[in-house]
Amino acid sequence: MSYEDTVVPKVKKNADGSHRHVKASDFDEISKEILITACSVYWCLIVAQAPFPDSVAAETKLAKEAWREACQLKGVDVKLTPSAVNMVSTVFLVHSWSYSFKAVETRFTRARRTQDEDASAHGFRSSNSMEVIRSNRDLAERLKIGSIFVFKDPSSKSGIYKTELLQQGINSMWFLNRSDEGVIYHKYFDPIPIKTIALVLMAIECCVDEWSQGIKEDIKFTSAGYGAVYNHHFSSLQRFDERTAPYKLLSKIRVASLIPLSATSQAHIDDVAFEDAIREYQREGKDAAVEDEVEEYEYPSSEGGDDE
């Protein structure tokens, strides 16, 4: 289907005659459907390409790319006139950012919950004991020094960027089920982008920070509070990639972090299974025939006593 039209939102006025803020409901049904899909695509573009956009121009570029991708996915072509593009982009960006930050909070909560379950792996313990509180505080400080929490074994600093928390964070934020973006929009996560890995490492560090006082306290991460943390991890990943380029270590980590989960059904049954079923049926038929013969067999009578 091809749907080509100029899309100009029907801007309703307030009772006093002033213009109201444009909402998603002001779009026609086709455009509204594209807007919803575009928001999901925009979220993928944000976490894969620019977790912290540094300008409105960067945001607008991603918004337009998401709109074009949504049109392609839906098999329609909804064009925007130059006079309407700014208005639509503004509505789209506001709607998308609202969705994105809500999604970030939701996914971060998922990751935090998963990591809370494995907090004992790093040695954190929930207790009111002053000794335990002091131990948790010291542990949080040690894990922050040199970001040793990114290692599979922080104590020996071996297995850099192979911490299980990295995989768990990626799983819980984008691959928890078949309706998650990592599955539906698989191409944005194949392989896992370096910026996405940096974003998850930032979230892990936030989880460590929650134990900085010895007792776990939830921290609401923001771009102002954790933008610099994200940049630190992204820079470290880039340097790691450059120093280990001949061995392609980061490329291997990015591929290994990808969850082999497809939105399509994998319930394919090989023909061999059908042949086995036939053989089972034939064996069961033979067994049943033997049982019938046994039941019909007339055993010799024992009447008359034993022969002398």
Automatic annotation (TrEMBL):
The lineage of its organism: Eukaryota, Fungi, Dikarya, Basidiomycota, Agaricomycotina. Residues 284-308 are annotated as: Disordered. This is DUF6532 domain-containing protein. Residues 38-240 form the DUF6532 domain. It comes from Suillus discolor. Pfam families: DUF6532. Residues 290-308 have a biased composition (Acidic residues).
